Amino acid sequence: MEAAAKTKVFGKPDTLTGVPYYYCPGCGHSLIHRLVCEVIDEFGMAGDTVAIFGVGCSCVSYPFFNLDWIYTLHGRAPAVATGFKRSMPDTLVFTYQGDGDLGSIGIAEIIHAAHRGEKFTTIFVNNANYGMTGGQMAPTTLEGQITTTTPEGRDPAHCGSPLKISEMLATIDGAKYVARQSVHDYKSLVATRKSIKKAFEVQLAGEGFSIVEILSQCPTNWKIEPVDSCAWIEENMMPVFPLGILKDESGG
Amino acid sequence: MESELVSGNEALGYGAITAGCKYYFGYPITPQNEVPEFMSREMPKAGGIFVQAESEVAAINMIYGAACAGKRALITSSSTGISLMQEGISALAAAQLPCVVVNVMREGPGGGGIGPSQLDYLQATKGGGHGGYIKMVLAPSTVQEIFDLMQTSFYLADKYRLVILMLTDAILGQMLEPIEMKRIPEGDLPPKDWATTGHKNQREPRMIPILLKGYTPINYFQAYQDEAAELNSLLQKEELRFEETTTEDAEYLLVAYGSTARIARSAIEQARGEGIKVGMMRPITLFPFPYQRTKELVSAAGKTLVVEASGGQMIEDVRLAAEGQGDISFYGKVGTVFTPIDIYDEIVKLAS
Ligand SMILES: Cc1ncc(C[n+]2csc(CCOP(=O)(O)OP(=O)(O)O)c2C)c(N)n1
Prior knowledge:
Number of strands of chain A: 7
Number of domains of chain B: 2
Strand content of chain A: 15-25%
Number of strands of chain B: 16
Bound molecules: thiamine diphosphate
Largest sheet of chain A: 7 strands, mixed
CATH class of the largest domain in chain B: Alpha Beta
Oligomer: heterodimer
Structural class of chain A: alpha/beta
CATH architecture of chain A: 3-Layer(aba) Sandwich
CATH class of chain A: Alpha Beta
């Protein structure tokens, strides 16, 4: 075959280094990393992007990205991003946080970053548990879901019902784009990529805060097979956390 | 140069802006509210940014963000707010991010009170947060010195990639004094070739903290401890600051810092007037502590009195310095301000 006839049909985005992921089999983080990097590639902005990671399974992700990368304390990424973006207004800044990091210990920081209309984007990974510490209950854990700290299943009378964080954030004026997507099938991957792109556009236009919540597989802590974890999202998570654009005030 | 009448808290702000600090993040707390108020007014004029954070926890992490960008950033608070920042200060130190933190100390543990004290010495100098990091601690005793040391703090922070903590208190913060606002020239500084400002497709990506500069996660924390120890000896050699008052022939020595030292100076003058040979060692760097010179002075004096607005905290460093020598006692008071007479009376007791 002649070299000129070769067409690339699939490759990795340049923003990804290609270092093999060390996440558990079937984990959604690697899919989300890829989608974020595809969008950064599309904007041609890897050289002007700074990634700010919260504490969770993805806090050891620095080798995966061709990006300047900041590790923060548990829950504080939105505050770090505030200080960073305010001093570097021309960079594309995103925080990447889990549902424990963002929805529990860091709930004040995310709400107030949205409240001030900070011009960065948050990638919010909802896997319905604390992955890194071994599968404890998160604020997003479903009713009846068994975790290592809800051995009998989450009982709303004891510890509440799943917290709908994106719905909450959508009520805040400074949040201009709020979407909930998923990475459990091809269609959802396409929609997630589109939402990430939109969220970055809102940031780059200086319109305000933007966030994409992404329902993400955690087969290890859900104690099911990776294949089944995709169906688990659809059957168990999506009725509680419906997908869609919760708010889009871009271009306004 | 004309002098201007400003408060200690305002001097913090003027000093920072003079030093080229363009980022201030803070949360209101008495007795330092004048600083965020000053910054909200003055920072925009200086082309800088003021953000009122939702909490001290957020504020210290905002500083972390600005410091990652290689910018000069300041944060101020008071005791209970500083406690909330300890995890963040530890993270800044772990990441070797330069920044300046000021504790305008108020009273007591817990929520405490709004009066002056020096109750946070041990928290300031012996860690405060977890994990065995070091930072420099500076203690001015006049409004002019607050202004000057604020500039020095930014220089030292950049020079050593350190967190610099300045300790003042409610007295110094609220006190008005005429000061001269001179820019203190800085020496050469290393380039901030670690800042995560976007690689512009021209260099390798950077990460903060630089966990892997030749280390693996396995030996990193040992390496961090080794570096901290090395830096500690360097600071002991290069950066000690202290002031001596009539120590040449002192038979009695006071050791005091900050506002207490200032009040003690009046007491010393009075006692000297009556022929009592008393002098004072005032550490300006509380970390690194001037151990060697303190030891010499404590040994030379017959008796040493450590005076603090606390139940006795710096006295631990004075004893450590003395290595068993001298005769060291303590006088302290919390809740009401020392008068020169209080300290004078103690000097007389010491001498009788
Ligand atoms: C102050 C603090 N408290 C607790 C921890 C321990 N910790 C590490 S990761 C984590 C939970 C992370 O869960 P999540 O944000 O849902 O992310 P995931 O690991 O599931 O991706 C916790 C509690 C910590 N590192 N710091």
